[in-house]
Amino acid sequence: MLKLYFFFISLVGGVRAGAEEACPAFTGLGISSALIGTDLRVKLMLYTRQNQDCAETLTSTGSKYLNVTKKTILIVHGYRPTGSPPVWIQETVQLLLSAEDINIIIVDWNRGATTLLYHRASSNTKKVAEFLKTVIDQMVADGASLDSVYMIGISLGAHIAGFVGQMYDGKLGRITGLDPAGPLFNGKPLEERLDPTDAQFVDVIHSDIDALGYREALGHIDFYANGGTDQPGCPQTIFSGNEYFKCDHQRSVFLYLASLRKSCNITAYPCDTYRDYRNGKCASCEAFQPMPCPVLGYYADKWKSYLTLKNPPVTKVFFDTSEEKPFCLYHYFVDIITWNKDIRRGFLIIKLTDQAGNTAQSTVNHEVATFQPYSQASLLAGFDQDFENIARISLAFSTGNVVGPKHKLRILQMKLRSITNPERPQLCRYDLVLLENTETTFKPVPCQNI
């Protein structure tokens, strides 16, 4: 059993029989290894519900815990410039095993990914993919189905998963790419990167497309967190050190983990651009009916049948998040019918208060809104708390000017309607005047048709 696996492992210098650790750990290296570079060695650590606290290294003596009749998830990390183990391993294992009785294989290629020269790590990706194919081949020979093989790849690992999928002509069950690497891959042809033909279902979360991540769509569905660029709560200056470089890129992993906690569903909306989404032009889920709009992460495959039948089978969806776990925002449209004689340009700050006195303020920083005379403007607002019963709404209008006269925004009707929970009653207020930079609080009433 696993003979092909151990033949290949001898070629890349993996774990040798008799050298297993009592409770194996991911290979930890230091900056010295990064300076001199590391030769590729691959180590596989298996977790199941029977050994979820202590990995089993797959060795020549066979596996005590691997059950090839169950789904197998292979998790492949990316570039490790300093050699430290990924911080997300244990949490990922625990959450996945809580969700489903499966095999989880952590693919440790830290020896090969640890180097200050990114192109050296990148050049190892196809070698790692060839290695993983021998492992999957043996699993299939032992009774596994390709349908039940699911690969999760982070950064360079996403392209490794894509290369494995290519070798199986797209017959793997699923690939999830978590902020697939951009440098040395942007603009490459399909065979040189992850793409929708690499598995029966390919979903991707983008969180750093302006730096370390891949900008364009790579899957059947591509989720762009906060437009795919700057993530809330991440450092904005280089003075924050290493966190400045990795925080946005790493956010894709933590968003995926948030989906496993199920404390809330992070819903995303199909749109051509993030700007259109932020301007409230893309909050419809009609294209997915009778399903709602898709949620990102582990349960995204519930939309597989719709997404894979599209022509072309590519869907880009956008969503905003809060700064901290579980990252959820609860979205509302705020429809404003103005009663001004002149155009007003500015921002609206919106605060909701429930019956217990808890408050939530919109964390979506819109572009300057234009309020045309006697017309409706629709603003998309996100709150990090969800109130089923809203007792009070506070509005503040600002043009952003610190000098000059204060302006008024006259409102004929304000309507608040939940996108996250569209079945909830819409709330309104009529005949309202907002004085610039002054918060106005009122009790909303059920909307009427006017």
UniProtKB/TrEMBL annotation:
Question: Signal sequence: where?
Answer: 1-17
* Localization, UniProt: Cell membrane; Secreted
A single GO cellular-component term on record: plasma membrane
Domain Lipase span(s) in chain numbering: 38-327
* Molecular-function annotations in GO: carboxylic ester hydrolase activity; heparin binding; metal ion binding; phospholipase activity
Which keywords annotate this record? Calcium, Cell membrane, Disulfide bond, Glycoprotein, Hydrolase, Lipid degradation, Lipid metabolism, Membrane, Metal-binding, Secreted, Signal
A single GO BP: phosphatidic acid biosynthetic process
> For this protein, what reaction is catalysed?
1-hexadecanoyl-2-(9Z-octadecenoyl)-sn-glycero-3-phosphate + H2O = 2-(9Z-octadecenoyl)-sn-glycero-3-phosphate + hexadecanoate + H(+)
Q: What's this protein's function? A: Hydrolyzes specifically phosphatidic acid (PA) to produce 2-acyl lysophosphatidic acid (LPA; a potent bioactive lipid mediator) and fatty acid. Does not hydrolyze other phospholipids, like phosphatidylserine (PS), phosphatidylcholine (PC) and phosphatidylethanolamine (PE) or triacylglycerol (TG).
Protein source organism: Pelodiscus sinensis (Chinese softshell turtle)
* Protein name per its UniProtKB record: Lipase H
Annotated family: Belongs to the AB hydrolase superfamily. Lipase family.
Q: Name one Pfam family in it.
A: Lipase
Q: Which InterPro entries match?
A: AB_hydrolase_fold, Lipase, Lipase_LIPH, Lipase_N, TAG_lipase
Q: Which residues form the active site?
A: S155 (nucleophile), D179 (charge relay system), H249 (charge relay system)
Gene assigned in the entry: LIPH
Membrane topology field? Peripheral membrane protein
Residues where Ca(2+) binds: R193, D195, D198
